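Quick one before lunch.
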Amino acid sequence: MPRAEAFPHIAVRATDIRKRYGGVVALNGVSLTVAEGEVFGIIGPNGAGKSTLFDILCGITRPTSGRVEVLGQDVGQMSPHLAARHGVGRTFQRTAVFGEGTVRENLLYGRHIGFRHSVIGRIFQSETYRTERRAFDEKAEDVLTLCGLQDERDRTANVLAYGVQRRLAIAVALMSDPKILFLDEPAAGMNGRETADFISLVEAIAPGRTVVIVEHDMTVIKALCGRALVVVDGRPVTIDAPGQVFRHPEVISAYLGADDE
Ligand SMILES: Nc1ncnc2c1ncn2[C@@H]1O[C@H](COP(=O)(O)OP(=O)(O)OP(=O)(O)O)[C@@H](O)[C@H]1O
Ligand SMILES: [Mg+2]
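Model of the magnesium ion complex:
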């Protein structure tokens, strides 16, 4: 298996990805590469296969055929814990914050992959536990500040405004210091102000990382992405600058034909 050192400039390499769900062909031959440091968009009408592709790229779902390497490793062989240790962070289309927990408790969940102390060590406040706890506190404060959540740290997640919950989901992902961040419709359901805040947040966290964003909101894609892939009916139609993709006749007809766009 090629190692990251072999492709220092490639963060994601997907080759001929196909996915079937019974009789449904969700993806029909998608290939792409994302360079390290790139903010890459994935767009397409509802049901086009974006989330399926997203889940395959970040290792949640196995493709029926094809291969995905993220940071030089085959994601098919990575458990979620391994993926996090390997530098892969992700947030999903359906917000997955722990609603009953406080903002800080959610961050602790994001960090727990980095905790190696045992329960016994915790009870006796071992040196390892104290060191990890200190590292968590420092990291949590940095992430809270970066994500504009300082004043929310002790609030229960499910009382937060929707846009704030979505920022919390990103904050949780940032707790494991991801080198690559996958975001599936991060701005869905946000109002204009929340979307603008979200764009600023991604601009702040993108330097030094690779970001892959699935998003319907073209304001977000245009503001953040150098290139975007358009998926229509499970097929890649074009990969181009966001300002250019709607010049493509097949993209225009796919969007005109979609009743809910
Ligand atoms: N687990 C599944 N079982 C069966 N069919 C599925 C499954 N997941 C996705 N599909 C089908 O695969 C196709 C692509 O779905 P997918 O969720 O990837 O689209 P999408 O582009 O993310 O849509 P949206 O814009 O609504 O988020 C759809 O026809 C969908 O019904
Ligand atoms: Mg989706």
